[in-house]
Amino acid sequence: MTKYTSDRLKILFEKLRSKDTSALGIFITAGDPDFDTSLKIMEGLPEEGADMIEFGMPFSDPMADGPAIQASSKRALEAGGSLKKTLDMVRIFREKNNSTPIILMGYYNPIYNFGVQKFLTEVIEAGADGLIVVDLPPEEDEELCIPAKECNLPFVRLTAPTTSNERLTTVLQNATGFIYYVSITGITGTKDVPIELVTHAVQNLKEHSNLPIAVGFGIKTREHVEQVTRIADAAIVGSEVVNAIANTLDANGKAKPETIQTTLSLVRDLAAGVRGK
Amino acid sequence: MSYKEIANTLRNAPDENGHFGIFGGQYVAETLMPLIIEVCDAWRASKNDPSFWSELEYYRQHYIGRPSPLYLASRLTEHFNGAKLYFKRDELNHTGAHKINNVMGQALVARRMGKTKIIAETGAGQHGVATATACALFNLECEVFMGAEDVKRQKPNVDRMRLLGAKIHPVTSGSSTLKDAMNEALRYWVSKAETHFYIIGTVAGPHPYPEMVRDFQCVIGEETKEQIMAAEGRLPDTLVACIGGGSNAIGLFHPFLDDQVKIIGVEAAGYGVETGLHAASLTGGRPGVLHGNRTYLLQNEDGQITEAHSISAGLDYPGIGPEHSWLFENGRVDYVCATDQEALEAFALCSRLEGIIPALEPAHALAYIATIIKTLPKDHIIVMNMCGRGDKDLEAVLPLLEKMGKL
């Protein structure tokens, strides 16, 4: 069995803690709007201030995502995106960058279809550093969470405002890597992050776990990043970034010359909000 | 009941986590889990409370109009000149289909939970109409998610829902059909957790829905058992029902799973399974995970869900209830299919010979029966679930029947 040994997430969070700063996580969907453009955006992210990359594995039925990420998933699939190509992009990215953690985010069906053991082997060999599989709650840990744990590959858990403390114990049981706190009750990209509630929730999570805490859903501006990184170990921006991609496309949904730069400038602006940077 | 008898039954699935063998389960986002757990608890409490069932029984008798008759389709029997054909007349239920059996049950669970607002998804609109009906009766707010394409295709049902007081959300994401309506309903539910209950219309979704919906639909098979004993003094030889998600079928089949009865489910073959344009998840799909459960799905080589096609909007879904996937793999139920064309012929035949205009969905079941009944002996008894009436389909069907020279 291939084991994960790179520990890029652990190294990142230790480094940030020693510098008393937090991380910016940027979500993009693999292959949105096409393979080459998406790869160039991905490769440009670290230089613009993204500390980790949430790399969306496109799926036809993204149940927990709002309109922006649904559309980006659709664009990626229409441009020929697939799980295999997502892993190819991770491999190519790793040829030049060996430090920025990549967390693969997505839904279980393409993984199940690919084969769980084969998937884990290829994920580790390609150089990804963790998994977030939205539709695998603790009730289904035997599917992928436990097999990932056996390979030492981080399996990140989501918690939400509706997660009770009783439930939290179950959710955190097999959690590794970091905790992803979903800041709003709803789907990605629809509402603004409610800072006060998040502050309480993050404090509560810290009482239950030593893992780093990332906050996502509803973080749209540099100000949001500033507020969230003051209280959490990482802020994750998704919908806003894929919207930036969408807004630069031509009438046929194809990338224009400015697509890459416009998207990366947004990331630079967001990164300027990170506490201590 | 002895341990051996329990171990030998096919009627005690799912397990407490909602698994039918490898199928079923709870594959939903953590943001949904608190809601699902709440529904699980409420369902378990209701299920074990005799007063819940006596309340439901009241509405079954006085509002839905149960029991529905078991009717010997004598002219079709004569026409085919083979086995004896009975129809379980669930198209006579209030609102014209079996959907209301489930909706009344879930609406009562929702009321017990103190929920005041209801969400539902619908394809053809039958489940939407049934839900809007129960909501009017129980003074619950009703919001129905329906693919924008289906809103156009099923205008009479959209009008009925509006008249009953429901708010329609046309869904334009994905392919704008039933699976997208279900995605959107789930998304909406997460954001309205406190007040809303989601009434799923078929035996799919995360546990406890496949079990709960089945238990509400089992009234079909339970009545059938009593009625056929009264009419024939014995159990039927064969049961046949159409399958989209599979709620009418499991309702008929489940009470007979441990009996010596042949059971056949008929999927929609659309233009033919070989064309790729069909809705036959078992015949033409493979196991995967969607909408909260593991089951057979139509999907491409990358695990992306593909579009279903059927002339019948009620069968036009790329998945199937997990219990059917289990009964398929363990071989207890035979799953076959019928094409659009065959269903249309059965639709016309049943209308002319029995004075019953069937919905396109059960027309698929009749279409398959037509291929086997002639060779069966005269004392062979078939029961088919006539799970809905065809008024809703006239607009789509009449031009096609004219072309076929059947009008």
Task: Characterize this entry briefly.
The complex is a heterodimer of chains A (277) and B (407). With 277 residues, chain A is α/β, with parallel strands linked by helices.
Features:
A: 277 residues; alpha/beta; TIM Barrel; eight-stranded parallel β-sheet; 12 helices; B: 407 residues; Rossmann fold; 2 domains; six-stranded mixed β-sheet; four-stranded antiparallel β-sheet; 14 strands; globular; disordered N terminus
Describe this structure in words.
The complex is a heterodimer of chains A (about 280) and B (about 400). By secondary structure, chain A is α/β, with parallel strands linked by helices. Chain A has one domain (about 10-270): Aldolase class I (TIM Barrel), CATH 3.20.20. In chain A, about 45% of the residues lie in helices and about 15% in strands. Chain A has helices at about 10-20, 35-50, 65-80, 85-95, 110-115, 115-125, 145-150, 165-170, 195-210, 220-230, 240-245, 260-270; strands spanning about 25-30, 50-55, 100-105, 130-135, 155-160, 180, 215, 235. An eight-stranded parallel β-sheet of chain A has the order 4-3-2-1-8-7-6-5. Chain B has about 400 residues and is an alpha/beta fold. Chain B has two domains: about 30-60 and about 100-215, Rossmann fold (3-Layer(aba) Sandwich), CATH 3.40.50.1100; about 70-95 and about 220-405, Rossmann fold (3-Layer(aba) Sandwich), CATH 3.40.50. Chain B has helices at about 5, 35-45, 50-65, 75-80, 100-110, 125-140, 150-155, 155-165, 180-190, 210-215, 220-230, 245-255, 280-285, 320-330, 340-355, 360-370, 395-405, and strands at about 20, 25, 70, 85-90, 115-120, 140-145, 165-170, 195-200, 240-245, 260-270, 285-290, 290-295, 335-340, 380-385. Chain B has a six-stranded mixed β-sheet, with helices on both faces. In chain B, strands 1-2-12-11 form a four-stranded antiparallel β-sheet. In chain B, strand 9, helix 12 (about 245-255) and strand 10 (about 260-270) form a beta-alpha-beta unit. Chain B is globular, with a radius of gyration of 20 Å. The model of chain B is unreliable at about 1-5 (pLDDT under 50). At the A-B interface, helix 3, helix 5 and strand 5 of A face strand 2, helix 2, helix 9, strand 11 and strand 12 of B.
